[in-house]
Amino acid sequence: MNIKELAKKYGLVEGDFWNHKQSGQWILTHDAVEKVATKEGIRLVNIETLNSETELVRFLVTMVKDEVTITSVGEADRKNCHSQYLGCMAEKRGVDRCVLKLINAYEYGVSSEVEAEDFKRPAHYQKTDNQVGKFSDMLEHPYFDGKKKETKKAWDSADSLTKAELVLSQMNHRIEQHNQESK
Q1: Domain spans of the chain?
Q2: Is the CATH code 3.30.160 the one for domain 3-119?
């Protein structure tokens, strides 16, 4: 399942997700994960406190979807969380992990923004989510078979909106040429 299919299935909009440049993963907001849980009928069964200290909070979160039960740890400490509310963050992390496991999102490179401070949406993001989605879609075209590595390199080096649009335009042109030649 790609991000477009996931977005369509769960009614997610562009602000609900983005592509994490460093890892290439798709990142969902916590609110988006909550939307997914609601649509799937996923419910919280139990939260058990493993640690509740000044510097570390860990919960064992159990959630269920139909007949499937998942348990995961949600943790937050002063090293991996900038929020003052470690308990709230630990709960969010545990819940998001369970929901994403229940829909097999990790299999498709989808994570939640609360899982790591590094996953937060950058304040200044040079490529729009729409551009990233177009790139991913076009890269799947048969023209790019055997050319994906060099195409990704060109995409990664596009360091402005204008350059990203140029790469997309060039990709689109190559696809159109390929389609014409294939007729």
Answers
A1: 3-119, 129-182
A2: yes
